[in-house]
Amino acid sequence: MQENLNEELKQAETETMEAEAVENTENCEETVCEAESCETDTEAENEEASETDGTEEASEKEKESKGFFGKKKDKKVAALEEKVAELEDRTKRQMAEFENFRKRTEKEKSQMFETGAKSVVEKILPVIDNFERGLAAIEPDNKDSFYDGMCMIHKQMLSELEKIGVTPIEAVGKEFDPNFHNAVMQVESEEFESGIVAQELQKGYMYRDTVVRYSMVGVVS
To answer: Domains along the chain?
Structure first.
């Protein structure tokens, strides 16, 4: 009887110890789980913080990069605009120089033409003079059809000269003008007043606005 009682007590103690061991094991497992959970949460928080920091750093770097390339782009655009302005200015200058050259060339060509034409007219005028002297030397009784033909040729020559701008200078009856007349003698005249051209010794001519040959005249004293 006593032995049975002792065995039951031992069995009860054993069961109590096993129950306490199981309970301690469960508590340990819960503690481990809580610790692991805390570690997991801490790691997650650290990862989130790292990701946030990384995002902020990336954003700052991107802003810095954009700012750098933006400044670089602005400098490049400014340089291109300056180059375009320089080329436009150079083009305008070249166009102005070419326009001046064109006008100068046209003026020189015109002057060369005027000089050449004036030279030809100067060589033709003595022929006209001789033609007129020949016609004037013919006696009135000898004026026939040949004379009339020569007069027509003379008139045609003067007409063609007039078409290119050659005109005779009016002299007799006009006031003496040194710009058109060359006085070689003074004469007495009852018809004209003093300073008036009374006699024309050689006819003068103008080519457009230029005197080709001055009229050789006698002026009333």
So the answer is: 166-221 (2.30.22.10)
